[in-house]
Design a protein that fits this description.
By secondary structure, the protein is mostly helical. Helix content is about 70%, strand content about 0%. It is a multi-pass membrane protein.
Length: about 475
C-alpha cells in the first residue's frame, strides 16, 4: 500500500511541464493591475515617470527571481522560499515567512471570488453575487484537486487568453497612435503634454513603485512550483528569463501605448471599473463596439486565473510548512494523484470564511484584506535575505560557483537592491498616515509587518532558535532533481 506521508520531494508528483511553470508565474502577475488600474501610474507620475518606475521595479523583480532560481535549482522543493529562510537564515524566519505567504493568498482568494461576483453583475445584475463567488471557488477547488499536470494545463490556457489580449491591444494601440484606426493620430505628443513626461518628480516615481510592486506580485510562484517541476534544473532558469521579459515588456509597452493615446491629465486613467479602463477605452476608439463585454470576459478569466494560481501556491506552502514542522503534520498528507488534499481543503475553507465576513462584518473583511496587503513584499524581502545568506555560506564553505546549476549574476547587488527597494515600498504604502500620526491608518496599513515580527519572535522563544552560522548552513545541492 502506498505511503501517503512521504518526504516532500517524493509525495508530490513532478508533473509541471516547462511551459506550465512559466505560465503559472505569468498568469499570477498579469491581472486587474494591468487591465484596470495601470492608468493610475501614468496619472500619478506622468508617462516617463510611470515607465521609469516599472523598469526599476522590473529590474528588482528580475534580481529576486534569479535569487530564487539559484536556490530552487540547488534544492528544488515545494514552498521553496519559506524552506530556504528556515535553512539559510533562521528556522523562526522560515516559520514567519511561510505563514505570512499562506495568509496572503488564503485571504486574497476571498478577494478574487468577490471580484468575480462584481464582474458577473455586468451581464447578469439580477443574480445574487454570492452565487458567482461560490461557483468560482468550486471551479478552482476542482482544478486544484486534479493531478498537477491537469492544473498546469488549465492555468496555461487561462493565462494564454490574457497574453493574447495584451498582444492584440498593443497592435490596436499602435494603429490608433498613427491614426490608422480611430481617425485621429496622436503620435507621441502626449509624452510632452504640459508637465509630461515626468510629473511630480522622484516622490511620484516612488509612489508608482507601490503600484508596480503589487502588479508584479505572483512572479515568486516559480519558486513554489520547483518541487513539482519535471526538470527544475532546466525549467526554472528558463522560466525565470521568459517570465521576466514577458512581464516587463507587456507592462512597459502597454503603459507606453496608453500614455501615447491618453494624456496624463485624463480622468479615465483613474477608472476603477472595466467600462472606463484604459484598455476598454482604446479598444472603443479603434471601433470595437463590444469592447466593454470583451474586456469584461478577459478580466473574468484573469480573476479565475489569479484565484487558481493563488489556491495552488497557498496550498503548497501549507503542505511545505507541515513537512518542515511549521504546521500540523496532517497538512503534509497527499492523495494518490499527489495532491495535498488537507492543505487544499483548509485553504479553501479559510478563503470561504473570509468571503463570508463580507456579509456579517464588512469591516472585518476589509481589515483582513488590509492585513494581507504587504505580505507579498515581505515574502520578497525574505527571498532576498535568504539568497544573500545562501551565497555567502556557499562561498565560505569552500564551494565554487561552477558547482551551481544556475547562479544569479551581480551578487551581492541583486539581493541588496531588492532588500532596499522592498523596504522603501513597504514604508511608502501610506506615508501621509505618519504625517498626521493617524494611528488607525498606520495600524490598518502596516499591520502585516508586526504580525510577521510576532510570528518570528514567538517561534524563536518557543523553539529556542538562533541565527544559523554561515559555516553551519546546509548548502548541499539536492540529489532529487530528476534530470
Amino acid at each position: 500500500m502506498e505511503n501517503k506521508e512521504q518526504t516532500p520531494d517524493h509525495s508530490l508528483r513532478r508533473g509541471l511541464k516547462q511551459r506550465y511553470v512559466s505560465m503559472i508565474a505569468l498568469g499570477g502577475s498579469i491581472g486587474t493591475g494591468l487591465f484596470v488600474t495601470s492608468g493610475s501610474s501614468i496619472s500619478q507620475a506622468g508617462p516617463g515617470g510611470a515607465i521609469v518606475a516599472y523598469i526599476i521595479m522590473g529590474i528588482m523583480v528580475y534580481f529576486l527571481m534569479t535569487s530564487l532560481g539559484e536556490m530552487a535549482t540547488n534544492m528544488p522543493v515545494t514552498g521553496s522560499f519559506a524552506t530556504y529562510a528556515g535553512k539559510y537564515v533562521d528556522p523562526a524566519l522560515g516559520f514567519a515567512m511561510g505563514w505570512n505567504y499562506w495568509f496572503d493568498y488564503a485571504i486574497n482568494n476571498a478577494v478574487e471570488i468577490s471580484t468575480a461576483a462584481i464582474i458577473m453583475k455586468f451581464w447578469l445584475p439580477g443574480v445574487p453575487g454570492w452565487i458567482w463567488s461560490l461557483t468560482v471557488l468550486l471551479l478552482v477547488f476542482i482544478l486544484n484537486i486534479l493531478a498537477v499536470g491537469n492544473f498546469g494545463a488549465a492555468e496555461f490556457w487561462i493565462s494564454a487568453i490574457k497574453v493574447v489580449t495584451i498582444l492584440i491591444f498593443l497592435v490596436v494601440g499602435v494603429l490608433v497612435i498613427f491614426g490608422i484606426l480611430g481617425g485621429h493620430a496622436t503620435g507621441l505628443s502626449n509624452f510632452t503634454y504640459k508637465k509630461a513626461p515626468f510629473v511630480g518628480g522622484i516622490p511620484s516615481i516612488i509612489g508608482v513603485f507601490v503600484v508596480a510592486g503589487f502588479s508584479f506580485q505572483g512572479t515568486e510562484m516559480i519558486g513554489v512550483t520547483a518541487g513539482e517541476s519535471q526538470n527544475p534544473g532546466k525549467s526554472i532558469p528558463k522560466a525565470i528569463h521568459q517570465t521576466f521579459w514577458r512581464i516587463l515588456l507587456f507592462y512597459i509597452l502597454s503603459i507606453a501605448v496608453i500614455a501615447a493615446i491618453l494624456p496624463y491629465t485624463s480622468k479615465y486613467l483613474l477608472g476603477s471599473s472595466i467600462t472606463i479602463s484604459p484598455f476598454t477605452l482604446i479598444f472603443k476608439r479603434a471601433g470595437l463596439a463590444l469592447a466593454a463585454s470583451v474586456m469584461n470576459a478577459v478580466i473574468l478569466t484573469a480573476v479565475i486565473s489569479a484565484t487558481n494560481s493563488g489556491m495552488y501556491s497557498s496550498t503548497r506552502m501549507l503542505y511545505s510548512m507541515a513537512n518542515n514542522g511549521y504546521a500540523p503534520k496532517f497538512f503534509g498528507r497527499v492523495i494518490k494523484n499527489g495532491i495535498p488534499v488537507y492543505s487544499l481543503i483548509a485553504t479553501t475553507v479559510i478563503g470561504l470564511l473570509a468571503f463570508l465576513t463580507s456579509f456579517v462584518g464588512p469591516k472585518i473583511y476589509m481589515w483582513l484584506v488590509d492585513c494581507s496587503s504587504l505580505t507579498g513584499f515581505i515574502a520578497w524581502w525574505g527571498i532576498a535575505i535568504s539568497h544573500y545568506r545562501f551565497r555567502r555560506a556557499f562561498v565560505k564553505q569552500g564551494h565554487r560557483l561552477s558547482e551551481l546549476k544556475y547562479h544569479a549574476e551581480l551578487f551581492p547587488l541583486g539581493p541588496i537592491l531588492s532588500l532596499v527597494l522592498c523596504t522603501i515600498v513597504i514604508i511608502a504604502q501610506n506615508p501621509s498616515a505618519f504625517t498626521s500620526w493617524n494611528w488607525y491608518e498606520i495600524g490598518i496599513t502596516y499591520i502585516s509587518v508586526p504580525l510577521v515580527i510576532i510570528l518570528y519572535i514567538v517561534y524563536k522563544i518557543v523553539k529556542h532558535t538562533k541565527l544559523i552560522p554561515l559555516d553551519k548552513v546546509d548548502v548541499k545541492p539536492s540529489t532529487k532533481d530528476h534530470e
